[in-house]
Design a protein that fits this description.
β1, α3 and β2 form a beta-alpha-beta unit. A nine-stranded mixed β-sheet has the order 3-4-5-2-1-6-7-9-8, sandwiched between helices. The chain has a single domain, classed as Vaccinia Virus protein VP39 (Rossmann fold, 3-Layer(aba) Sandwich), CATH 3.40.50.150. The relative contact order is 0.15. It is an alpha/beta fold. 41% of the residues lie in helices and 15% in strands. It contains twelve helices and nine strands. InterPro entries: LCMT1, Ppm1/Ppm2/Tcmp, SAM-dependent_MTases_sf. Belongs to the methyltransferase superfamily. LCMT family. It comes from Spizellomyces punctatus (strain DAOM BR117).
Length: 343
């Protein structure tokens, strides 16, 4: 049974010290490497298409089929929501902006840019240890720097800026006091429809810090979407084992009991001032949202004997979203979401 499935991208958590001497922040930062390795394994096996993933992995490794399928499903679910957002309203990505929270080694901006589907502005925030390494990898890769165009490396190599891509070091626990003012200085426009993207990030924060972030995000824009991918169901037998395995690695899911179910995932947005909210688990996405031809393609990539484990794992991960619409205006954001499954 996998201790992390799929391994989460680098994320935030308050310092928690264990007998190993490894702090919670350090342990969670280390999961960025796990995530990059797992994504590349899925790419190499044909699940995903990402020519940039290889640049963030020093030593590629194979992953079991259940991990590859999990990495694929996570990416596909989030990509579905991102594409819905970019196509909403006037249909132009160039009239929107995205804020990626705890972006880690994510390559989404480069994939969008290569297709000319990038938004007007794209902000990535992570700890300086992560952004510094990412900036250096980008700088050494001609294909990625060509997509950036004219760019500037600052803050001792931990920040990277181009016309519409900004890689910024910061601590998301200080979202309202530090992150929002920083992106405002880099052209963040509250009048533009905005997507906040959180992949296994909020769950590493204390419930108070994550609630403040979700509320501050709602207050910072006139309209937009907040998308979260993270674990749920901590108290059934599988969930208990999942948390124990994570704890052995020095990782604690500080927020999982504050939002342990699909309903509580929806409620977090409504309480924080978002107008509508939805949530689905990965079983629901795989079985009822994913195109049947695509499901057949993915199923044929590897011999898959881990059906029971797959269903257990998929039921313990979810994607949720909150939507804020501009008063008196229909900008199409209400159509963003997997509403056919969420109730």
């Amino acid at each position: 049974m996998s201790s992390l499935w799929p391994p989460p991208l680098a994320a935030r958590s308050a310092p928690v010290f264990h007998e190993s001497g490894l702090s919670g922040d350090d342990a969670v930062r280390a999961t960025n490497d796990d995530a990059a390795i797992s994504r590349l394994a899925a790419v190499n096996q044909g699940y995903l298409s990402d020519p940039y993933a290889k640049h963030f992995v020093r030593r590629p490794q194979r992953r079991p089929p259940v991990i590859n399928r999990g990495s694929y499903t996570r990416s596909k679910a989030l990509d579905t929501l991102v594409q819905q957002f970019l196509k909403s309203g006037d249909g132009s990505p160039k009239t929107k902006q995205i804020v990626s929270l705890g972006a880690g080694s994510d390559t989404r901006w480069f994939l969008l840019k290569a297709q000319d589907l990038h938004p007007a502005r794209y902000y990535e925030i992570d700890f300086p240890e992560i952004t510094g390494r990412k900036a250096q990898i980008i700088k050494k890769n001609n294909e990625m720097t060509e997509l950036l165009g004219e760019h500037l490396l600052t803050s001792g190599g931990t920040e990277l800026h181009s016309d519409n891509y900004h890689l910024i070091p910061g601590d998301l626990r200080n979202f309202s006091t530090e992150i929002l003012p920083r992106i405002a200085s880099l052209g963040f426009d509250k009048s533009l429809p905005t997507l906040f993207l959180s992949e296994c990030v909020l769950i590493y924060m204390s419930p108070r810090d994550s609630a403040n972030l979700v509320q501050s995000a709602a207050e910072s824009i006139e309209s937009g979407v907040f998308v979260t991918y993270e674990q749920i169901l901590p108290d059934d037998p599988f969930g208990v084992t999942m948390l124990q395995n994570l704890k052995m690695r020095g990782i604690e899911l500080l927020g999982i009991r504050a939002h342990p179910s699909l309903q509580s995932q929806r409620d977090r947005y409504l309480i924080a001032g978002w107008d509508e909210a939805g949530a689905v688990d990965m079983n629901m996405f795989w079985e009822r949202i994913l195109d049947s031809d695509e499901r057949t393609r993915v199923s044929a990539l590897e011999i898959f004997d881990e059906v029971e484990e797959w269903r257990l794992l998929s039921g313990h991960y979810c994607v949720s979203w909150g939507i804020k619409t501009r008063k008196g205006a229909d900008n199409g954001l209400k159509n963003v979401g997997l509403w056919e499954l969420s109730s």
